[in-house]
Hints:
The chain is built from 23 helices and 19 strands. The chain is of the alpha+beta class and 696 residues long. The strands form 5 sheets. A 5-stranded antiparallel β-sheet has the order 4-3-7-6-5. Strand 18 and strand 19 form a beta hairpin. Helix 8 packs antiparallel against helix 9. The C terminus is likely disordered.
Amino acid sequence: xxxxxxxxxxxxxxxxxxxxxxxxxxxxxxxxxxxxxxxxxxxxxxxxxxxxxxxxxxxxxxxxxxxxxxxxxxxxxxxxxxxxxxxxxxxxxxxxxxxxxxxxxxxxxxxxxxxxxxxxxxxxxxxxxxxxxxxxxxxxxxxxxxxxxxxxxxxxxxxxxxxxxxxxxxxxxxxxxxxxxxxxxxxxxxxxxxxxxxxxxxxxxxxxxxxxxxxxxxxxxxxxxxxxxxxxxxxxxxxxxxxxxxxxxxxxxxxxxxxxxxxxxxxxxxxxxxxxxxxxxxxxxxxxxxxxxxxxxxxxxxxxxxxxxxxxxxxxxxxxxxxxxxxxxxxxxxxxxxxxxxxxxxxxxxxxxxxxxxxxxxxxxxxxxxxxxxxxxxxxxxxxxxxxxxxxxxxxxxxxxxxxxxxxxxxxxxxxxxxxxxxxxxxxxxxxxxxxxxxxxxxxxxxxxxxxxxxxxxxxxxxxxxxxxxxxxxxxxxxxxxxxxxxxxxxxxxxxxxxxxxxxxxxxxxxxxxxxxxxxxxxxxxxxxxxxxxxxxxxxxxxxxxxxxxxxxxxxxxxxxxxxxxxxxxxxxxxxxxxxxxxxxxxxxxxxxxxxxxxxxxxxxxxxxxxxxxxxxxxxxxxxxxxxxxxxxxxxxxxxxxxxxxxxxxxxxxxxxxxxxxxxxxxxxxxxxxxxxxxxxxxxxxxxxxxxxxxx
Length: 696
């Protein structure tokens, strides 16, 4: 009897399985270089178990007959384990998650354990296989497989076919020329064909040849078509848009979604990237991910290009993964555009503020500066960073000014009031005192709708300061001059009028008349001085308006008019109430107009006073039937202008115009059959027009 290694057939079988086992083991180091850890584990497991199976088959032919049965069983266990490793590899390589499914893994473990137990206990039940010593073509134990073997083998072939189906499906979906890789994969099925032939003919030993196919697939994949192996897996996973490049930056593969984005990819396999897609190639020079713009039916579309490398031994491919980031990129572009617009508006606002105000600042609810405009340094000497976080008292000139500032701020923060303050003292960094006109308004929580805001939603105050130092200095000088002139004029006029009275009493005829004219001129100058005093007293009063019933005001004026002009005849058409948005000092303006009408319409003046109320205004009409107001006086009352001033009869009408217009009112004059003066005052927003009931 010839031993296997002494016959050509034996040497052929030993060599076939030995080379198969060695080929699998030699491929292991390269398999360990696969970047994807799950694919790596599946491939390493497949090669290891298949290699062991082939080496055990080699040992089967050279071992004594007494050991061949045991060696065959161990080889079968390795081979059955290779089936599960193949499924794990196929699932991971094709991007599926079957290999992660805990239920499937448990079922696989149970099936493997059952089959393994049946194989190990075969010497007892002999249902898996039986052996017969053969001498042709050499001495060995022939394996006669039983029912359990065919059940196990059928399961193995079904599982192997499932893995093959997953891989071939991946090849089809990749859209890539997978012919070389497909041929290698198809060779996995070659041993099955050999097994069937061995059953039908005595020329071949009935000996499972599956390790040969796995070895051909593994060695060919890892050493011959490694780039294609990596490229196919990358381009066919899911709906990802990918472009695969080889080491020379030529397009090796691309996924269908990538072709949808870049129609230029059609037929571009093997073309340098910078020739086919120069815009994409330009991003390769950058270290970080880049965004590329493409025209779309709904406008520009944007794709994030994320490069990564995949290696397997000395095979390396570069994968450009394209992610559609159109929505986020459009939002980013909109934000950039909005920021540019805001920057432009902010620059415009800054210019307006710089031109209109000395500086602008914000105060929080703890009375500390939370923002200060850069222009503050020119006004106070403090840089913005010196004031931010500091209390407002840092700019207080004295305790009184600090107290007033806190009171003003309390009205804004606690009551939601918008305030205006004239000439508030501010201490500079150098210790000097400057003056500012201040306007302050509350700042509300932005998330609260304006219709729902209350004082609880106030988070700070916006304050604008206009430099009033020069005006205050100028007005102070004028005030001093006015006081000095009024004092001296009144004193001197008192002396003049006293002597004029005495002369008028002592003289007769033309001399007495001249003394009376001196006395009248002196009285006129005294009236001018008094009007100037009254104008100055009103200059510093707050312009804030409030609801005021005009009817009682006019009633008081009529009483005063009757006392001073007992011969006057006054007719009125006045409602019971007439609420105007004004201030009590409107009484001064009305009196000046009434007094002017009574003085210049004869010894028994006739005056009509009508009051009409509408939704938007209170109209007060004062009409006399005198000679008519001179043009110069009309100009004073209607426009506040008098040029030259000495042409006017006095400052009373100027004072009336100044008060009315400062209280958001209007005044107009008509001189048909006497003089008619119309004063229009605004009504409060909530005021409802009353039913008028005239009273005479």
